[in-house]
Amino acid sequence: MPLTIHYHRDFDGICSAALLAWCLREHFGRSDLRWRGINYDRRRDWRAFGEGEEFAIVDFHFHPAAAYWFDHHPTTFLDEDLRAAYRESDRWRFDPSALSCPPVILRQARERWGTSPPERFDEIGRWSDRIDAARYPSVEDALFGDVPAYRLVRALTVAPHADWSDVLVERLIDRDLAETAGDPAIEKMHARACRNRDRALAEFPQTVLSTDAGVVLYDASSDRIRRERFAPFYHHPEAVYAVGVIPTRSGFHVTAGENPWNAPAVRANVGALCERFGGGGHAGVGGANPPSLEEAKRVAGEIAAALRRDVAAPR
Ligand SMILES: [Mn+2]
Hints:
By secondary structure, the chain is an alpha/beta fold. It has helices at 11-26, 80-85, 102-111, 120-132, 139-144, 148-156, 164-174, 177-181, 184-203, 231-235, 270-275, 293-312, and strands at 3-8, 33-38, 54-58, 68-71, 92-94, 208-210, 215-219, 241-247, 252-258, 280-281, 285-288. It is 40% helix and 17% strand. Strand 6 and strand 7 form a beta hairpin. The site of manganese (II) ion has 6 residues, from helix 1.
Protein backbone atom coordinates (compact mmCIF):
# COMPACT_ATOMS: atom_id res chain seq x y z
CA MET A 1 0.00 0.00 0.00
CA PRO A 2 1.47 3.39 -0.94
CA LEU A 3 1.99 6.05 1.69
CA THR A 4 0.14 9.28 0.82
CA ILE A 5 1.60 12.60 1.98
CA HIS A 6 -1.25 15.07 2.48
CA TYR A 7 0.05 18.63 2.48
CA HIS A 8 -1.45 22.08 2.95
CA ARG A 9 -1.79 23.51 -0.53
CA ASP A 10 0.44 26.57 -0.17
CA PHE A 11 4.14 27.26 -0.59
CA ASP A 12 5.44 25.97 2.75
CA GLY A 13 3.07 22.98 2.58
CA ILE A 14 4.32 22.04 -0.88
CA CYS A 15 7.95 22.37 0.23
CA SER A 16 7.20 20.29 3.36
CA ALA A 17 5.77 17.48 1.24
CA ALA A 18 8.85 17.47 -0.99
CA LEU A 19 11.19 17.38 2.00
CA LEU A 20 9.29 14.58 3.76
CA ALA A 21 9.18 12.61 0.50
CA TRP A 22 12.96 12.98 0.21
CA CYS A 23 13.45 11.73 3.79
CA LEU A 24 11.07 8.79 3.38
CA ARG A 25 12.73 7.76 0.14
CA GLU A 26 16.39 8.33 1.06
CA HIS A 27 16.39 7.51 4.77
CA PHE A 28 13.50 5.06 5.17
CA GLY A 29 13.81 3.44 1.75
CA ARG A 30 10.16 4.03 0.79
CA SER A 31 9.55 3.98 -2.95
CA ASP A 32 5.74 3.76 -2.80
CA LEU A 33 4.98 7.42 -2.14
CA ARG A 34 2.31 9.76 -3.44
CA TRP A 35 1.17 13.23 -2.40
CA ARG A 36 -2.06 15.22 -2.44
CA GLY A 37 -2.94 18.77 -1.41
CA ILE A 38 -5.58 19.39 1.27
CA ASN A 39 -7.51 22.49 2.15
CA TYR A 40 -9.50 23.65 5.12
CA ASP A 41 -12.78 22.28 3.74
CA ARG A 42 -11.50 18.81 4.70
CA ARG A 43 -11.83 19.60 8.42
CA ARG A 44 -15.43 18.43 8.44
CA ASP A 45 -15.52 14.78 9.47
CA TRP A 46 -11.81 15.03 10.31
CA ARG A 47 -11.65 11.81 12.35
CA ALA A 48 -12.62 9.74 9.32
CA PHE A 49 -9.87 11.35 7.24
CA GLY A 50 -7.53 8.89 5.54
CA GLU A 51 -9.46 5.81 6.64
CA GLY A 52 -8.01 2.65 5.12
CA GLU A 53 -4.79 4.25 3.90
CA GLU A 54 -1.32 4.82 5.26
CA PHE A 55 -0.75 8.55 5.29
CA ALA A 56 1.35 11.45 6.44
CA ILE A 57 0.19 15.05 7.02
CA VAL A 58 2.41 18.11 6.77
CA ASP A 59 1.61 21.76 7.51
CA PHE A 60 -1.98 20.84 8.44
CA HIS A 61 -4.13 19.71 11.36
CA PHE A 62 -2.94 16.95 13.66
CA HIS A 63 -4.48 13.53 12.98
CA PRO A 64 -3.87 10.62 15.38
CA ALA A 65 -3.81 8.04 12.55
CA ALA A 66 -1.02 9.83 10.66
CA ALA A 67 2.10 7.69 10.25
CA TYR A 68 4.06 10.96 10.04
CA TRP A 69 2.86 14.41 11.03
CA PHE A 70 4.57 17.81 11.16
CA ASP A 71 3.05 21.23 11.69
CA HIS A 72 3.67 24.72 13.05
CA HIS A 73 0.13 26.20 13.17
CA PRO A 74 -0.94 27.08 16.75
CA THR A 75 -4.52 26.12 15.72
CA THR A 76 -3.50 22.61 14.60
CA PHE A 77 -5.50 20.65 17.22
CA LEU A 78 -9.18 20.68 16.32
CA ASP A 79 -10.25 19.73 19.86
CA GLU A 80 -8.82 18.89 23.28
CA ASP A 81 -8.97 15.11 22.71
CA LEU A 82 -6.79 15.53 19.65
CA ARG A 83 -4.38 17.73 21.61
CA ALA A 84 -4.17 15.04 24.32
CA ALA A 85 -3.41 12.37 21.69
CA TYR A 86 -0.26 14.18 20.54
CA ARG A 87 3.22 13.25 21.82
CA GLU A 88 6.43 14.35 20.19
CA SER A 89 7.97 11.18 18.76
CA ASP A 90 10.04 9.79 15.90
CA ARG A 91 6.99 10.23 13.65
CA TRP A 92 5.34 13.42 14.90
CA ARG A 93 6.61 16.90 15.67
CA PHE A 94 4.80 20.14 16.44
CA ASP A 95 6.61 23.46 16.78
CA PRO A 96 4.29 26.48 17.04
CA SER A 97 7.33 28.77 17.30
CA ALA A 98 8.44 27.83 13.75
CA LEU A 99 7.57 30.43 11.11
CA SER A 100 6.92 27.73 8.50
CA CYS A 101 6.80 23.94 8.39
CA PRO A 102 9.92 22.80 6.42
CA PRO A 103 12.38 23.75 9.21
CA VAL A 104 10.37 21.56 11.63
CA ILE A 105 10.92 18.55 9.36
CA LEU A 106 14.58 19.48 8.81
CA ARG A 107 15.17 19.46 12.57
CA GLN A 108 13.39 16.11 12.87
CA ALA A 109 15.56 14.66 10.09
CA ARG A 110 18.80 15.79 11.73
CA GLU A 111 17.99 15.36 15.41
CA ARG A 112 15.85 12.22 15.42
CA TRP A 113 16.46 10.43 12.14
CA GLY A 114 20.17 11.19 11.88
CA THR A 115 19.91 12.02 8.20
CA SER A 116 21.08 15.13 6.37
CA PRO A 117 18.78 16.42 3.64
CA PRO A 118 20.66 18.41 0.96
CA GLU A 119 21.44 22.10 1.51
CA ARG A 120 18.74 23.10 -0.98
CA PHE A 121 16.16 22.27 1.71
CA ASP A 122 17.79 24.78 4.09
CA GLU A 123 17.45 27.38 1.36
CA ILE A 124 13.78 26.40 0.97
CA GLY A 125 13.28 26.76 4.73
CA ARG A 126 14.73 30.26 4.79
CA TRP A 127 12.34 31.41 2.05
CA SER A 128 9.29 29.58 3.39
CA ASP A 129 9.85 31.26 6.80
CA ARG A 130 9.77 34.65 5.12
CA ILE A 131 6.79 33.86 2.88
CA ASP A 132 4.55 32.02 5.35
CA ALA A 133 5.04 34.63 8.08
CA ALA A 134 4.80 37.49 5.53
CA ARG A 135 8.13 38.82 6.79
CA TYR A 136 8.96 40.59 3.56
CA PRO A 137 11.41 43.46 4.07
CA SER A 138 9.18 45.89 2.13
CA VAL A 139 5.91 46.01 0.23
CA GLU A 140 7.93 46.45 -2.99
CA ASP A 141 9.88 43.27 -2.21
CA ALA A 142 6.64 41.36 -1.54
CA LEU A 143 5.07 42.55 -4.80
CA PHE A 144 8.01 42.76 -7.18
CA GLY A 145 10.81 40.67 -5.61
CA ASP A 146 12.12 38.32 -8.27
CA VAL A 147 13.83 35.46 -6.43
CA PRO A 148 12.87 31.87 -7.46
CA ALA A 149 10.77 31.25 -4.31
CA TYR A 150 8.63 34.33 -4.99
CA ARG A 151 8.25 33.34 -8.64
CA LEU A 152 6.87 29.96 -7.56
CA VAL A 153 4.44 31.58 -5.09
CA ARG A 154 3.18 33.91 -7.83
CA ALA A 155 2.91 31.09 -10.37
CA LEU A 156 0.73 29.17 -7.87
CA THR A 157 -1.86 31.98 -8.01
CA VAL A 158 -2.68 31.05 -11.62
CA ALA A 159 -2.42 27.24 -11.26
CA PRO A 160 -4.51 25.66 -14.05
CA HIS A 161 -6.13 23.14 -11.67
CA ALA A 162 -6.10 22.28 -7.95
CA ASP A 163 -3.79 19.27 -8.41
CA TRP A 164 -1.13 21.34 -10.11
CA SER A 165 0.73 21.76 -6.80
CA ASP A 166 1.39 17.97 -6.88
CA VAL A 167 3.68 18.60 -9.87
CA LEU A 168 5.60 21.18 -7.87
CA VAL A 169 6.06 18.75 -4.96
CA GLU A 170 7.55 16.15 -7.29
CA ARG A 171 9.98 18.65 -8.82
CA LEU A 172 11.15 20.01 -5.48
CA ILE A 173 12.16 16.57 -4.18
CA ASP A 174 15.23 16.55 -6.42
CA ARG A 175 15.61 20.11 -7.74
CA ASP A 176 16.42 23.40 -6.09
CA LEU A 177 14.18 26.47 -6.24
CA ALA A 178 16.04 28.11 -9.13
CA GLU A 179 15.86 25.05 -11.36
CA THR A 180 12.19 24.47 -10.51
CA ALA A 181 11.22 28.11 -11.13
CA GLY A 182 13.17 28.14 -14.41
CA ASP A 183 10.88 25.58 -16.02
CA PRO A 184 9.31 27.15 -19.15
CA ALA A 185 5.74 26.24 -18.10
CA ILE A 186 6.27 27.90 -14.72
CA GLU A 187 7.87 30.95 -16.37
CA LYS A 188 4.75 31.31 -18.48
CA MET A 189 2.46 31.04 -15.44
CA HIS A 190 4.62 33.55 -13.61
CA ALA A 191 4.33 36.07 -16.45
CA ARG A 192 0.54 35.73 -16.31
CA ALA A 193 0.52 36.16 -12.54
CA CYS A 194 2.56 39.36 -12.91
CA ARG A 195 0.03 40.76 -15.38
CA ASN A 196 -2.74 39.97 -12.87
CA ARG A 197 -0.77 41.68 -10.10
CA ASP A 198 -0.22 44.81 -12.20
CA ARG A 199 -3.91 44.99 -13.10
CA ALA A 200 -4.91 44.48 -9.46
CA LEU A 201 -2.61 47.29 -8.34
CA ALA A 202 -4.02 49.59 -11.02
CA GLU A 203 -7.63 48.75 -10.07
CA PHE A 204 -7.26 49.05 -6.30
CA PRO A 205 -7.70 52.85 -5.93
CA GLN A 206 -11.25 52.76 -7.33
CA THR A 207 -12.29 50.29 -4.58
CA VAL A 208 -11.21 52.55 -1.69
CA LEU A 209 -14.10 53.92 0.38
CA SER A 210 -12.13 55.84 3.02
CA THR A 211 -8.64 56.19 4.52
CA ASP A 212 -9.34 58.06 7.78
CA ALA A 213 -7.26 57.57 10.92
CA GLY A 214 -4.75 55.17 9.40
CA VAL A 215 -7.35 52.60 8.28
CA VAL A 216 -7.97 51.87 4.59
CA LEU A 217 -11.54 50.62 4.02
CA TYR A 218 -12.23 49.17 0.57
CA ASP A 219 -14.92 47.26 -1.30
CA ALA A 220 -13.46 44.83 -3.83
CA SER A 221 -16.60 42.66 -3.88
CA SER A 222 -17.13 43.03 -7.63
CA ASP A 223 -15.99 39.90 -9.46
CA ARG A 224 -14.58 42.10 -12.20
CA ILE A 225 -11.96 43.53 -9.85
CA ARG A 226 -8.64 41.72 -9.54
CA ARG A 227 -7.20 41.44 -6.07
CA GLU A 228 -3.71 41.62 -4.67
CA ARG A 229 -3.29 41.08 -0.95
CA PHE A 230 -0.72 43.84 -0.41
CA ALA A 231 -2.31 46.47 -2.71
CA PRO A 232 -3.74 48.55 0.21
CA PHE A 233 -0.27 49.04 1.71
CA TYR A 234 1.36 49.61 -1.67
CA HIS A 235 -1.01 52.52 -2.34
CA HIS A 236 -1.26 53.66 1.30
CA PRO A 237 2.10 53.00 2.98
CA GLU A 238 1.06 55.36 5.81
CA ALA A 239 -1.93 53.15 6.76
CA VAL A 240 -1.67 50.93 9.84
CA TYR A 241 -4.69 48.69 9.01
CA ALA A 242 -6.68 47.68 5.94
CA VAL A 243 -10.23 46.30 5.97
CA GLY A 244 -11.98 45.10 2.82
CA VAL A 245 -14.77 43.06 1.31
CA ILE A 246 -13.77 40.44 -1.26
CA PRO A 247 -15.78 37.72 -3.03
CA THR A 248 -15.28 34.02 -2.30
CA ARG A 249 -16.50 30.99 -4.25
CA SER A 250 -19.71 30.90 -2.22
CA GLY A 251 -20.23 34.44 -0.91
CA PHE A 252 -18.25 37.32 0.54
CA HIS A 253 -15.36 37.62 2.94
CA VAL A 254 -14.34 40.50 5.15
CA THR A 255 -10.57 40.65 5.53
CA ALA A 256 -8.77 42.84 8.07
CA GLY A 257 -5.09 43.15 8.83
CA GLU A 258 -2.18 45.22 10.07
CA ASN A 259 0.26 46.86 7.70
CA PRO A 260 3.34 44.61 8.12
CA TRP A 261 5.58 47.55 7.18
CA ASN A 262 3.90 50.17 9.37
CA ALA A 263 2.60 48.26 12.38
CA PRO A 264 0.33 50.05 14.87
CA ALA A 265 2.10 51.36 17.99
CA VAL A 266 -0.33 49.32 20.12
CA ARG A 267 -1.93 46.26 18.50
CA ALA A 268 -5.72 46.06 18.50
CA ASN A 269 -5.98 42.22 18.18
CA VAL A 270 -7.69 42.03 14.80
CA GLY A 271 -8.63 38.36 15.20
CA ALA A 272 -10.52 38.96 18.46
CA LEU A 273 -12.30 41.90 16.84
CA CYS A 274 -13.37 39.70 13.91
CA GLU A 275 -14.60 37.05 16.36
CA ARG A 276 -17.31 39.50 17.46
CA PHE A 277 -18.67 39.22 13.91
CA GLY A 278 -18.53 35.43 13.76
CA GLY A 279 -15.01 35.25 12.33
CA GLY A 280 -11.55 34.88 13.82
CA GLY A 281 -7.82 35.12 13.18
CA HIS A 282 -4.59 36.13 14.87
CA ALA A 283 -3.48 39.35 16.55
CA GLY A 284 -2.36 40.86 13.25
CA VAL A 285 -4.84 39.50 10.73
CA GLY A 286 -8.40 38.23 10.77
CA GLY A 287 -11.57 37.77 8.78
CA ALA A 288 -15.26 36.96 8.82
CA ASN A 289 -17.78 35.52 6.38
CA PRO A 290 -21.10 37.36 6.79
CA PRO A 291 -24.11 35.76 5.06
CA SER A 292 -24.71 38.49 2.43
CA LEU A 293 -22.95 41.29 0.61
CA GLU A 294 -24.93 43.89 2.55
CA GLU A 295 -23.91 42.28 5.84
CA ALA A 296 -20.28 42.03 4.69
CA LYS A 297 -20.21 45.74 3.88
CA ARG A 298 -21.77 46.60 7.24
CA VAL A 299 -19.31 44.35 9.15
CA ALA A 300 -16.31 45.77 7.25
CA GLY A 301 -17.48 49.29 8.13
CA GLU A 302 -17.87 48.39 11.80
CA ILE A 303 -14.46 46.70 12.00
CA ALA A 304 -12.85 49.72 10.32
CA ALA A 305 -14.62 52.06 12.75
CA ALA A 306 -13.46 50.00 15.75
CA LEU A 307 -9.87 50.02 14.48
CA ARG A 308 -10.04 53.78 13.93
CA ARG A 309 -11.22 54.30 17.49
CA ASP A 310 -8.36 52.08 18.66
CA VAL A 311 -5.75 53.99 16.64
CA ALA A 312 -7.06 57.32 17.96
CA ALA A 313 -7.42 56.15 21.60
CA PRO A 314 -5.22 57.98 24.11
CA ARG A 315 -2.67 55.64 25.73
MN1 LIG B 1 0.97 26.37 4.99
